[in-house]
């Protein structure tokens, strides 16, 4: 085991000597679950589900085990050396609008795969910090899948697991469905466009909670000048009754028009032309 990849107890960089590859070694404390056979069985079911998930936009899950002595669950996943989408976006300030759409399609395709299960697999804590990037190929994958569900079980039943800035209003009420992931995706998109964490104007989680549950959108939404981008984000963060599914968003004109013209545009546009339409042009 090598240096930690993130703060806290959940992820380390490791080397798989058998396969000869670097991997991410994740640990979650589950002391309470180990004392309850019903919760422990549910935990095993959750981990088993993670092993069965196979999709090009979902982080590969290699192995897992429960360490009863140290009261934690360990699972091994693939590692992306370009880091998270948030880190990648901070490093690359000027990216073509088509890259935004390409990333969006990949994330939505991953969510569609998860949500198409019966019952739907819900991430619960989607954000740019757990979407990972392969910079060489422009590939993005959803990671940390299952951590929110496992942590939810490991804590008091009334606790809410997630990141306040990305949590849909209904998630606070604990009566929700897979559309909470679409809301979180919309907030990810808003962050990518504005370079701001949603609700940066709030100084604590309580203020965010009050705004979210009152239907007040992040102040950064007003900074998005491109109306097509803004409208697409609004479709994602609308009230749950009006929010579109991953399947519906994938055929939205905002994504489809670009996808259909991409092959033609790629053949006729010069490198100089590619520098236009960057994310910075979307802001006031």
Description:
With 284 residues, the protein is of the alpha+beta class. Helix content is 40%, strand content 13%. It has helices at 37-52, 85-91, 97-115, 147-154, 169-172, 179-194, 205-213, 227-236, 246-250, 253-268, 271-274, and strands spanning 11-16, 21-29, 61-67, 72-78, 131-134, 139-142. The strands form two sheets. Strands 1-2-4-3 form a four-stranded antiparallel sheet. Strand 5 (131-134) and strand 6 form a beta hairpin. It is globular, with a radius of gyration of 19 Å. The model is unreliable at 1-9 and 263-281 (pLDDT under 50). This is non-specific serine/threonine protein kinase. Its EC number is 2.7.11.1.
Features:
284 residues, two-stranded antiparallel ribbon, 6 strands, 11 helices, alpha+beta, 4-stranded antiparallel sheet
Explain the layout of strands and helices.
Layout: E1 11-16, E2 21-29, H1 37-52, E3 61-67, E4 72-78, H2 85-91, H3 97-115, E5 131-134, E6 139-142, H4 147-154, H5 169-172, H6 179-194, H7 205-213, H8 227-236, H9 246-250, H10 253-268, H11 271-274
Antiparallel strand pairs: 1-2, 2-4, 3-4, 5-6
Helix pairs in contact: 3-6, 3-10, 6-8
């Amino acid at each position: 085991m090598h240096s930690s990849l993130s703060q806290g107890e959940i992820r380390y960089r490791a080397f798989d000597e058998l396969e000869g590859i670097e991997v991410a070694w994740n640990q979650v404390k589950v002391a309470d679950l180990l004392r309850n056979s019903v919760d422990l069985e549910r935990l095993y079911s959750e981990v088993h589900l993670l092993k069965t998930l196979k999709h090009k936009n979902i982080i590969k899950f290699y192995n897992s085990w429960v360490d009863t002595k140290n009261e934690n669950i360990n699972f091994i996943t693939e590692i992306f050396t370009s880091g998270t989408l948030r880190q990648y976006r901070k490093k690359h300030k000027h990216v073509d609008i088509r890259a935004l759409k390409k990333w969006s399609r990949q994330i939505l395709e991953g969510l569609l795969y998860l949500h198409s299960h019966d019952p739907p697999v819900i991430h619960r804590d989607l954000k740019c910090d757990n979407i990972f990037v392969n910079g060489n190929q422009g590939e993005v994958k959803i990671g940390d899948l299952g951590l929110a569900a496992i942590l939810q079980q490991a804590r008091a039943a009334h606790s809410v697991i997630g990141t306040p800035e990305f949590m849909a209003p209904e998630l606070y009420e604990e009566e929700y469905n897979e559309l909470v992931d679409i809301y979180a995706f919309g907030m990810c998109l808003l962050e990518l466009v504005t370079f701001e964490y949603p609700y940066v104007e709030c100084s604590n989680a309580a203020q965010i909670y009050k705004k979210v549950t009152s239907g007040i959108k992040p102040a950064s939404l007003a900074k998005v000048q491109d109306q097509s981008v803004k409208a697409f984000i609004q479709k994602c963060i609308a009230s749950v009754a009006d929010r579109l599914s991953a399947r519906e968003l994938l055929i939205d004109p905002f994504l489809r028009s670009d996808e259909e013209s991409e092959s033609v545009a790629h053949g006729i546009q010069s490198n100089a032309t590619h520098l236009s339409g960057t994310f910075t042009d979307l802001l006031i």
